[in-house]
Design brief:
By secondary structure, the protein is of the alpha/beta class. The chain is about 40% helix and about 15% strand. It has one domain: Rossmann fold. The protein has a seven-stranded mixed beta sheet, with helices on both faces. A hairpin with a 5-residue loop joins strand 3 and strand 4. The radius of gyration is 17 Å and the shape is globular. The structure holds adenosine-5'-diphosphate (ADP) and magnesium ion. The site of magnesium ion (MG) has 4 residues, from helix 1.
């Protein structure tokens, strides 16, 4: 059975892209067929997995705006089971271009349904906003993973995110679930990180993944080499924790 998971948080820099790439690569290396969908105009997942944007013929923009078949936008990565629908800067116009279009919230859902049967997991890397691209992602998804950075303002903005999730559940996608909440960039040297973990666990309870992603310099280096941690440094702590997370995701 295949599952579409949106990786979302309207805050930037919380680990959405790092999680999309490395959870995707870890699931693929465990034998799952995975499709990454980059729906952030910054295209960090696209470049982070080694796609040269100059080589992109069709991107997610063409799929949701120009009705290109998603099969014609899917590209290979250096991991056999891991494919990607890339994003380019072209997507920056989509928020505005979608406004006057018919069924603008369900475009991604309709497209991904054409290829859903080909994959075990489709991971959507969302932009840092609660705009129409994120609403498309939440409408297309079976569930969401919310990465939360272990820092002082960790919970700030979460009520807006959860409110958006509820609105989508009410009007567009009644079966949308919270897959899990992922604590990221944990620094064991500070008390603050531990406080944040406690606070987030109090709020989300059993939804919080056992796996906590620590700060790991190899995770931050890998994208500039166009690689996931799985190929960049499979023996690093970063690779180990994303593999643990992949096993947790598979186990539910
Ligand atoms: P988002 O997609 O939510 O904006 P990113 O995944 O791009 O966040 O992460 C923001 C920055 O932090 C990036 O430079 C990334 O390489 C770095 N980063 C993310 N997770 C970690 C981690 N666990 N350890 C070290 N650096 C990280
Ligand atoms: Mg990102």
């Amino acid at each position: 059975m295949s599952k579409i998971i949106a990786i979302t948080n309207q805050k930037g820099g919380v680990g959405k892209t790092t999680t999309s790439v490395n959870l995707g690569a870890s699931l693929a290396s465990l034998g799952k067929k995975v499709l990454l969908v980059d729906i952030d105009p910054q295209g960090n997942t696209t470049s982070g997995i080694g796609i040269n944007k100059a080589d992109v013929t069709n991107c997610i923009y063409d799929v949701i705006i120009n009705d290109i078949h998603p099969k014609d936008a899917i590209m290979d990565t250096n991991i056999p089971n891991l494919k990607i629908i890339p994003a380019t800067i072209q997507l920056a116009g989509a928020e505005i271009e979608l406004v006057p279009t018919i069924s603008r919230e369900v475009r991604l859902k309709k497209s991904l349904h054409l290829v859903k049967h080909m994959y075990d997991y489709i991971l959507i890397d969302c932009p840092p906003s609660l705009g129409i691209l994120t609403v498309n992602s939440l409408t297309a998804a079976d569930s969401v993973i919310i990465p939360i950075q272990c820092e002082y303002y960790a919970l700030e903005g979460l009520s807006q995110l959860l409110n958006t999730v509820r609105l989508v559940q009410k009007h567009l996608n009644t079966s949308l679930q919270i897959e899990g909440v992922l604590l990221t960039m944990f620094d064991a040297r500070t008390n603050l990180g531990i406080q944040v973990i406690e606070e987030v666990k109090k709020y989300f309870q059993q939804k919080v993944y056992q796996t906590i992603i620590p700060r790991n310099v190899r995770l931050s280096e890998a994208p500039s080499h166009g690689q996931s941690i799985v190929t960049y440094d499979p023996r690093s702590k970063g690779a180990e924790v994303y593999m643990e997370l992949a096993k947790e995701v598979i186990s539910v």
